[in-house]
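assembly run, all chains below
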Amino acid sequence: MCIFCEIIKGNIPNYTVYEDDKCLAFLDISQATIGHTLVVPKQHFENIFELDEDTAKHIFNVVRIVANKISKSLNVKDINILNNNGKLAYQSVNHFHIHIIPRYENDQFNIHFSENKLSNEELVELLDKIKRA
Ligand code: 5GP
Ligand code: ZN
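ok done. output:
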């Protein structure tokens, strides 16, 4: 059984901040910033590609609820919502989860998008490819 399924089943200690019939939100064991929380579906889906529509809708609303709770309780306005799928994307636990990461002035969390400007032709070609799928 995966580590998050163990947490959901209550087999290992967890730090639940929100729970309903479909999902659980708990503090990440490694606090990237103070308040770092994970939201997971109770059903084991490996990643975004396995997730069903109802769970996807439900879980993002729970992310919204928990982000608000964190914002109010910890007095933060800035928050990253992050989801990693696959090894190259740094997924280390293969049970779908969404990170809620509150941001503070001069915190140590680093998320950096490198600049990569494409020409209009390249963007249109890319767009056609994605839209055709
Ligand atoms: P990923 O890299 O897969 O997107 O994120 C997995 C997250 O799960 C990491 O931030 C890691 O700290 C957290 N994590 C791993 N094992 C445990 C655990 O046993 N308990 C809790 N609360 N978090 C965990
Ligand atoms: Zn699992």
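The chain has a mean pLDDT of 97.

The beta strands are 16-19, 23-27, 37-41, 78-82, 98-103.

not gonna interpret more than that til we talk
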